[in-house]
Amino acid sequence: MELLRPSSLDAVDGGVPIHGGTEVVPLLRDRIIETERLVDIRGVVPSGVSGRTLTNEQQLSSDNNYQAVIIGAGTTLAELEASTQIPAALREACRLAASPQLRNMGSLGGNLLQATRCWYWRLKFPCRLHGGDRCHAREGEHREHAIFANDFCASAHPSDVAAALLALDATLRTTTRELSVADLYRLPTEDDRATTTLEPGELILEVDVPAAPRSVYLKAMDRKRWAFPLVGVAATPERTALAGVAPIPWLLEGDLDAATPLPQTAYKVELAKALVKRARAAVASG
Amino acid sequence: MARLIRTEKEVEGRYEEVWLVVEEDALEQWPDGPLKIVGRGAPRVDGLERARGEARYTADVRLPGMLHTAVLRSPHAHARVKRIDVSRALELPGVRAAIGPGDIEQLTGEPGYQGAAVAAVCADTLAQARTAVAAIDVEWEELEVVVDPDDAVRRGQVHDKRERSRGDYERGLAEADVVVEGTYRTQTVLHNSMETHQSVAAWEGDTLNVYISTQFIWGVREEIASELELPQDRVRVVCEYMGGGFGSKNDPGDYTFIAIELSKRTGRPVRCALTRREENMAAGNRNSTVQRLTVGAKSDGTLTALGGEFVNALGWSGWNASTEGPMQMLYACANVKTTTWGAKVNTPPMKAFRAPGFVEGTFGLECLMDELAAKLDLDPLELRRRNYASNDATDDRPFSSKNLMECYRRAEPHWARRDEVRARSTETVKRGVGMASQIWYGGGGPPSYAWTRVGSDGRVTVVTAMQDIGTGSRTAMAQIAAEELGVPLDWVTVSLGDSARGPYASISAGSSTIPSMGPAVRAAAADAKRQVVEIAAQRFDKETRTLDVKNGSVICSDGGKWPLEDVVGLLEDAQILGKGARGPNPTGMQVLTFGVQVAEVAVDVETGEIWVERVAAIHDVGRVINALGAESQVEGGIIQGIGHTLSEQRLVDPETGTILTRTLDAYRMPTIADAPEIVSELLDIPDAHLTNLGSKGLGEPPIVPVAAAIANAIRDATGADVRSLPISREEMLRALREARERERRGAPAAV
Known about the structure:
The complex is a heterodimer.
Chain A: E1 2-4, E2 16-18, H1 24-29, E3 37-40, E4 49-51, H2 56-61, E5 69-72, H3 77-81, H4 88-95, H5 100-105, H6 108-112, H7 119-122, H8 136-139, H9 160-167, E6 171-174, E7 178-180, H10 181-184, E8 204-209, E9 216-220, E10 231-235, E11 240-243, E12 250-251, H11 266-283
Parallel strand pairs in A: 1-3, 2-3
Antiparallel strand pairs in A: 4-5, 5-8, 6-7, 6-8, 9-10, 10-11, 11-12
Helix pairs in contact in A: 4-9
Chain B: E1 2-11, E2 14-23, H1 47-52, E3 67-73, E4 79-85, H2 87-90, E5 95-99, E6 117-123, H3 126-134, E7 137-142, H4 149-154, E8 158-166, H5 169-174, E9 178-186, E10 198-204, E11 207-212, H6 217-228, E12 235-238, H7 253-266, E13 270-273, H8 276-282, E14 288-297, E15 303-315, H9 325-329, E16 336-344, H10 358-376, H11 380-386, H12 404-415, H13 418-423, E17 429-440, E18 449-454, E19 460-463, H14 473-485, E20 492-495, H15 513-540, E21 547-550, E22 553-556, E23 561-563, H16 564-569, E24 576-581, E25 593-604, E26 610-620, H17 627-647, E27 677-682, H18 706-718, H19 729-744
Parallel strand pairs in B: 3-13, 11-12, 15-16, 19-20, 26-27
Antiparallel strand pairs in B: 1-2, 3-6, 4-7, 5-6, 8-16, 9-14, 10-11, 10-13, 14-15, 17-25, 18-19, 18-24, 21-22, 22-23, 25-26
Helix pairs in contact in B: 10-18, 14-15, 17-18
């Protein structure tokens, strides 16, 4: 296996991109990703948080603390959890993710692209997400699995950060286009088992996060730290988004009674209702 | 004089009758309470070596020319190998040898659980060995998989059925004013020692050297010698430093025999080490249980009947731990009847895990007792006092010592915090306090030996081929020798961990290290001290009874004082050698440990989140040797118990028997953020009948009552009956829902 360290985006040509490696390395070890070429993109993907240049009018009307920011996709979660420039929901989602060691290595872009923790998928059962014809979790152990859009594949998306960016209505700039965070994700289907719309070779470069004076992220997990969300809830006054409840980060439209839980995930509906109520109360105006 | 006796020997609650040669234990016990060194806190004598990375664990052993092993483990929970071909693997680069079913007993052609060892390859590098294992060609015939223990019992698929009864259970039930029934479930949990199971085998002439992460150097030696038909002294077993075992490393394991065989075939040292994923598949577990329990009591709380049907899901093999033990032993109740099934299922075999059976059984029994207390409207602590067993409840033997009533008394101030804790509840976060009692073994036993060597500089070496499994045994043994010999702690070195360098020593399991080894070390130190005193008496013309050794000097009651190095320095190159043996356990007495824990919790009744805020642990384990080490045992036991109670569970796919939680992100042990405030109180009352130390073991007692104390605190806080471990969000929310429904129906709340 070779490891390339390109110094410009133009030099990136094929291979599996790797940044912090907290997701790619375990997947390589489990042979879920197989490649002869790793491309270290730390030198070519921007990192850091910067305020977006505002018009005079925006500057006059907006509190500096709540200005929109542009975040390089190479920024680590550890940098973001300590940033005072970003909305609270994003900061909190970073702080509650993983462990300090993992946050020191893991990048924002990588976090958005992480795969499900579904044990059947990680153990390479020939499940639908791997191109097979059944979802083993639906009939097996699925306490950590989805309560929405779980008919085809019951996996749950593990990213706290993605739920926060979804609620914040963030926009991504990639090597080829601009798209909303919502458009980064797609539900797997019979014809296409992918959970993101990223094209081969396409890299996320920057995340544009609108100003959000009031936002919050609440997370339920199996222990106090270092666990993926059973349910994560990000909210702004306008939007509520959930982690751990569907194969992709889930924008909550309507209410939780529309959920279709499996026998072992019914508790997630109750849990999500409680967290959504709290999150919305926390960001409600007045 | 050596005395031959026939006696009962107990390890982890299992008894066997053995012949023993015992030497009389002539030493009087030390006076009660902390002494100069024993009973005080001592930092680990090997702390710096460990921190600096100098301590050589089995994982650090790298011998010249050493080969690495990868093991083909069954991907199926139940299957037959129809055909296996290692020829392709053998042709790969670096590969030196391959073995399969039939080559050694530990490799099976008919695996009964996922992860069973089927074949193994050794190569110059681990990567080469792994590549080669992937190239082994196997044709499997898959067989039927049974993973549900109740299902296994219905099919008659059982390893063991144990029935125990005293009195007349049915009559006791008929006499009861109140009967409470409950079904309790505990999950399978994994040991997850820091150091995975591993060995390095190396032949040196006709001697086999085995470096192994083990809790029992001598047991490993015996088992290997017997399996290979070698004289025992041709097997040398080494374990200098160890990264934990918790009961899972009492025997050599398949990996050791694989390494030995491959070493034999290649003439090279061979290392076989489990990965974390293999560890969590195939290295043992605390088996799951189903406990269907009944208690009958008079309205004043007097127990009239206790009954239980216990199903232990042992896995494909394993032993039927005493899950009924607490029900049989904890309380004075005339009528007790239990049946314990050991179900045979297609999951990896259980192994002893820190108080096996009693951790699970205490959860069921002590939750049941609290449900009874609620029904009787009795204070849970008072209910336990009213059913106090003054003698062994199973056979009326006296206890060598039992200070559980004193533990209850010491628990009172913690228990009295109830009102204040509950008062801190809010609309959504309810707080409560719960308690549970602890009963377990921990008396140790003979044989165990130690030697001491005092050099002409007065420095002392304790030599014994015991192991320190990470609990701080080295430090405790150094303290005992220093106390007895009257020298500063840093004058004592403990040489352990090598069967070729020291006498036989006991297993480090069953909370037996200190009670088994401590008395032998003290006796060996006393033997050396006796000689020092005799030498000084002759040199300085004093009577021996006027002499003593204190703080590194020989002192005389007439005020004379001579530094120890001056006394033994007279002898130039001579050394003073002492030897000591562990004396017998008191005959006709039951030796047990006791305790009580009081837990404070907060429960978010909307989200099911649980915070364990405080645990007070009061244990009666006889004399304390190292106050600091003892405290960290209590803390470790409670934190491990919190994992068992709230977040850990090994999950198995019900259809295929595949182990789903192999990695540390999927299998959730507590982090330090989950650890509560822990108040540790040890009574430190020596057991007057037990050895020259009066010490019992503390490795296991602290984990025994944790789950029940937390579950009872949750019931106190919320009125919800949690009866299944782990008390995950779904179990907590289910119990809260059930409690709300019960209240809506107008049934009296449990609190």
